[in-house]
Please model this.
Amino acid sequence: MKKRLIIFFLLTALLLSACAENAETSAEGTPSDAVTDTLPGEAPAAEEIPEPEEELPPPPVEDMNGAVLTILNYTPESFNWANTLIFAEELNGEILNDALFERERMVEETYNASLEELASGDVVGTITTSVTAGDSNFDAAMLFDAQVTNILQQGHNLSWGELDLDLTKPWWDSAATEQYNFKGIQAAVSGAFSLYNYSTRHCYVFNEDIMNAVAPEINLFDEVREGKWTLDRMYELGALAVLDLDGDGTMTSANDQYGIVSSVTRHYSALLAGANIKYIDRDENGDLYFAIPDNEYALTAISRLVQLNTGNDIYTSGTNDIGGGAESPIFYNNRALFIAAYVGEAARMRDIEFNIGIVPSPKYNAEQEQYYSLIEGGAQTILPKTLGTDTQHKTAVLLDAFGYYSFMESIPAYIDQVLMTKVARNEDSSEMLQIVFDTSFYDLGTGVWSADTKNTFTQNIFLPRSDTVVSHCEKIGRAVSKKLERFIADIAG
Model:
């Protein structure tokens, strides 16, 4: 089997803070000409996770004569908000672990090759050092989505278009392929061999025991199915759960019960995405643009989010740090009805002592045609600039095979057997998770350009609960547009 190579790097405070900020975001987009308080009549198609088919043929098999494919990956400690697993050391009886092991074994035995992981706490530094030195000690790298364009602008990665690879196959994420293609340069992709972007999809987890206590007549799963799970409905139910437990007349995150908890970025990102709003979108020519300022629907929705959290104690972040952290103990301590979470975070709730359920982010209103969920804060796969023509074929063949066997083996294990049984605990929540996976999308404004859009909205609008979205857009609009223009000019030059 593979070797596991570890590089130990001390992460800098800058990298840590960047990860903390950029791992919390969200939003999906409406066309800039939407001018009503309801969504346009026809919603864009959301990214779907295709169901593996028993007869889905594998890629062509080649004898790779013992070739080694090395993937640079983050250590779990340096990317602890997502599932970083790519390889398993041995069979141990655990469903996901054994599925990871088996799909790796299939590739190695079928193609007469070896797969390796090069693990680093500083992937950006490792890529930069390796490419600058002209080294080729890895064939592909998992890269935090917020860093993809930086690496591209530095000239450190190779376009996936250089490889003979069909990215329309179902084991390649078509939504990621679209988002990370810049003027024909395929900067990054997402394959089924990685769990990063499966584990960083937004959902809401709710405390079923509190729900039964405050609204015993409500079946939230049925409301989702009937299209009644909306923004207003979440706050209506959340208000029922607010309780001054210590009776001191003041609501505090240390002692009392809330309707909704989450970090500031996680909650507002989930709700913006659920309303089908993006910070950064593409026009009819595929050009990037700041999608909020000229979108009356988005401006109205953002103002509504501020109003819902003004003058009440339904929602708390537990902290003024936009990255959050203090909100999780409130939920874990059985003192909140809802928490905005990544799917991967929900997976860590399997041992919680009270009953939980999972639902997608709510729709903005009942007229909205479908639910939407955001994928953000994960890692995409890039190719180093030093990947020589002599190794490009090997890389394409083995990554394609790795993606295929992952799609057939480990992804079903992660979704169906791990998330939908160990975590979801009931068939209702399993169905809700499938909605999350089937309606997920990317927004470059919550990843690549989050510092310019998402974070400034969080700091200036959502954290202070200030309804100044129009003036804020006027303030930052030109700067955001210029940054996008410079990026396109840089990669074109």
Remarks:
- Residues 2-47 have pLDDT under 50 and may be disordered.
- The CA atoms of residues 264 and 463 lie 7 Å apart.
- The chain has 18 helices and 17 strands.
